[in-house]
Amino acid sequence: MKIEAKNLSKIYKGKRALDQISFCLEEPKIYGLLGKNGAGKTTFMQLLAGMMQPTSGEILVEKTNPFNNQRLTESICLIKEGNNFKKDLKIKNVLTISSLFYPTWDQLLALKLVDEFSLDINAKVKALSKGMESALGIIVGLASKAPITMFDEPYIGLDASARSRFYEILVEQYQEHKRTIIFSTHLIDEVSLLFEEVLIFQEGKLLVQENTDVLRQKCISISGTIPQIESFITDKMVIDTKQFAGVMTAVVVGIEIEEARTNGFTVEGVTIQQLMIYLTSYKGGKIEW
Amino acid sequence: MYRSLDESKPIYEQIKEQMEDIIINDSIPKGDRVPSTNEIANFYKINPATAAKGINQLVDEGILYKKRGVGMFVTEDAKGILFQKRKNAFIKNFVIPLKTEAKKLNIDSQELLELLTKEGKTIED
Q1: Between residues B1 and B107, which one has the greater pLDDT?
Q2: Model ipTM value
Q3: SS3 of A174, please?
Q4: Which of the residues A117, A153, A216, A273 has an alpha carbon 20 to 30 A from that of A195?
Q5: Domain that holds residue B84
Q6: Which residue among B45, B53, B92 sits closest to A171, beta carbon to beta carbon?
Q7: B10 → closest Cβ in A192, A213, A262
Q8: Are residues B63 and B84 in the same domain?
Q9: Does A136 touch chain B (CB under 8 A)?
Q10: Is the dihedral of CA A40, A46, A47, A48 positive or negative?
Q11: Which residues of B touch A193 (CB under 8 A)?
């Protein structure tokens, strides 16, 4: 399903959470939605899920506004950080309600995952630990098979092995059934291999939208003596520099690894997590990719 | 083999290199099937599109070929192509940096040659 944001703005609790952002998510892909706290990620996902109205601009799914539009929102599943389900419901009730809401619901998968994450189907939501409640959210997100599925920091309290299992199942499920998955997390290093495309938000603006491997290729870190690096980077796009013990390291956008190597510099890749940190602390204006 | 992936360079390139290693060291001989895009994605927990990009480039380079509905197979010429390619990469990634470092240390070509033939001994030895 095609998702379009057109000059999308949202003022939320007196703050401009989203500031005239425009972009398009065309293909069913796994998207990473990254940014610091308060960058507007959650606001964007809630708008896309039709849970609130934009202040101005538009969010469109297949050219239609998702707000108060059940025919559309039954194709959109948003799993939040917590409080996804009513506390008095039993797990099996949560699954039944979800199966009635999502036409694409896969009950067999849901039951398999309940078993996999060792949940008791008769337990009430309020009796679950934080980790178990997160597991239930993940189960509903996966089993919804909704054409647009969003996970917004879905795993508070979930241990490393359960998270790892979640990523495995996500890849398997995605291959069986291609759909748009939007994933927002602070544990970027854990999941960045799953992202086909990354969007980085900064103070309500979209900083970058790009294929993940293209970002890995375009952004490198080079080290050498201070005068060498200083003269090399004068005409380059530099997003971070550091100096230590006579050595200078610069994070440069848009140069070839070979070019840096033939200059005798030490060249290293930059992880998506590091890139997000550099970009969101960069104060030098527009970045030319 | 089966090194874990890192983010030092594009993931599709690393998938490509790992498949190349498997072919070069005969783990999968010519004519045999290599893992599918889905199998690779599941194994490494990476995006299937990324795995597909690496595999498709190997097809373009004549190292793998597709049999419709069956899978991907190692071509007859795969190893020959890879050796040539790796030789070029060897010059770029090892020989040139070696010379650059040697120059930094004032090691001339004569001395460098001696060091290369002397096999694993440092100056103290």
Answers
A1: B107
A2: 0.78
A3: helix
A4: A117
A5: 79-118
A6: B45
A7: A213
A8: no
A9: no
A10: positive
A11: 5, 11, 44-47, 50
Is B88 within the bounds of a domain? yes
Q: Closest-CA residue in chain B for A189? A: B7
- pLDDT, one tens digit per residue, over B82-102 is 999 999 989 988 998 899 889
Is B48 in Cβ contact with A195 (below 8 Å)? no
Contacts of B6 in chain A (CB under 8 A): 269
Paired tokens of A80: 């939040």
CB-nearest to A193 from B47, B96, B104 is B47
Give the closest-approach CA distance of A74 to chain B in angstroms.
26
Could you tell me if B34 and B51 lie in one domain? yes
Asked if residue A251 lies in contact with residue A200, where contact means CB atoms within 8 angstroms, the answer is: no
The rounded distance, in Å, linking the Cα atoms of A20 and A9 is 5
Domain of B20, CATH number, reads: 1.10.10.10
| A/B interface, count of CB pairs below 8 Å | 65
Instruction: Identify whether residues B23 and B69 lie together within a single domain.
Output: yes
Same structural domain, B89 and B99:
yes
Residues B92 and B108 reside in one and the same domain: yes
Q: A171-222 pLDDT, tens per residue?
A: 999 999 999 999 999 999 999 999 999 999 999 999 999 999 999 989 999 9
User: Structurally, how many domains does chain B consist of?
Assistant: 2
**Are A264 and B45 a contacting pair at CB < 8 A?**
no
Residue B59 maps to a domain: yes
Domains and CATH numbers, chain A: 3-203 (3.40.50.300), 214-281 (3.30.70)
Cβ contacts of A183 within 8 Å, gap of 6 or more = A30, A31, A32, A33, A150, A151, A191, A194, A195
B32 to chain A, closest Cα gap in Å: 24
Query: If pLDDT is split at 50, 70 and 90, which confidence band does B119 have?
Result: low
Cβ <8 Å between B47 and A172: no
Same domain, B58 and B112: no
**Min distance B23 CA to chain A CA atoms (Å):** 24
With contact defined as beta carbons under 8 Å apart, do B80 and A213 qualify? Answer: no
Determine how β-strand A3-12 pairs with β-strand A56-61.
Answer: antiparallel
Report whether pLDDT(A12) > 90: no
State pLDDT tens for residues A118-155: 999 999 999 999 999 999 999 999 999 999 999 999 98
B-contacting residues in A 220-279 (Cβ below 8 Å): 257-258, 261-262, 264, 268-272
Q: Does residue B52 share a domain with residue B95?
A: no
8 A C-beta contact, residue A229 and residue A181: no
